[in-house]
Amino acid sequence: MRVMNNTKLLFYEEYEQFYKMTEKSKTFESFCRDAFGQDFSQDGFSDINQINRILRHIPSGKDIHILDIGCGNGKMLGYLQNKTNAYIHGFDYSENAIDTAKRLFQTKADFKQGYIGEIDYPAEQFDLVVSMDTMYFAPDMEKLVQQIIKWLKKDGVLFVGYQEGDVMPKTDNEKTTILAKVFDKSRIQYEVENITQETYELLKKKREAALLHQRDFEKEGNTDWFDMLMLQTDCVTDPYDVFAQRMARYIYIARKEIN
Fold first, then answer.
1. Beta strands 152-164 and 248-255, pairing class
2. Are 187 and 259 in contact (CB under 8 A)?
């Protein structure tokens, strides 16, 4: 295995343990269904309503290819494949996650262990590239965006669930985020939807679902993961206007021009 710096190693070990837990825990599976409407082993904000938005941007056809940046154990890609019969591709830096993805999805599927900004794919391979709460881990956002545009087929789409605040400094609005500035600098046309209010309601639901399953987490010996869910959702104990001052979440949709 490659050598990682201390920060990467810290998060790597956390995610290795997380994906070990998700593979065995029936409680976490039930929690995800209650919190998000579907079990994708989520560690974040993506519920079934957000994932179904992705379906609108998957073209019909027999040779459709989708890439998920930070794919985890591949369950979200599996859902998209089930709906569209597309080829699915994903990479993640968690070895446990990728091992699970390879075991779960073996038809029209390609999963790799790799790091944002380091892994590469052939030009014009994908109809759709998806990044749900992963692009802000890029060491160089502009380089990553240019790389994704290279990977996309002509008229291909980049679909991004993107947060500012908490994990990175919050800007004033969706036009001044780090990602939006990169799009503008690169003259990439994009649409954006502010889903901060939706995220607040989702996190409230996530907290309620965690509390509902607290005893089952304890019986499994997974109290640490219950505590993590409480920490992740502590922000919704504040009113929405206070929450929105600290955190903002958007969906960005960018399209590679045909010319």
1. antiparallel
2. no
The residue among 161, 234, 237, 145 whose CA lies nearest residue 196 is 161
Structure token pair of residue 53 = 């938005």
Check: CB of residue 128 under 8 Å from CB of residue 66.
Answer: yes
Each residue's pLDDT tens digit, 200-255: 999 999 999 999 999 999 999 999 999 999 999 999 999 999 999 999 999 999 99
Centre a 10 Å sphere on the Cβ of residue 15 and count the other Cβ atoms it contains: 19
Q: Among 150, 147, 145, which residue's Cα sits nearest to residue 190?
A: 145
What are the structural domains of the chain? Answer: 6-255 (3.40.50.150)
Rounded CA gap, 118 and 139, in Å?
Answer: 10
Q: Is the dihedral of CA 111, 117, 119, 125 positive or negative?
A: positive
CA 177 to CA 160: how far, in whole Å?
Answer: 13
Amino acid 163 reads Q
Q: How far apart are CA 135 and CA 161, in angstroms?
A: 9
Q: Note the Cα 228 to chain centre separation in Å.
A: 18
Q: Which of 190, 189, 178, 119 is nearest to 151 (CA)?
A: 119
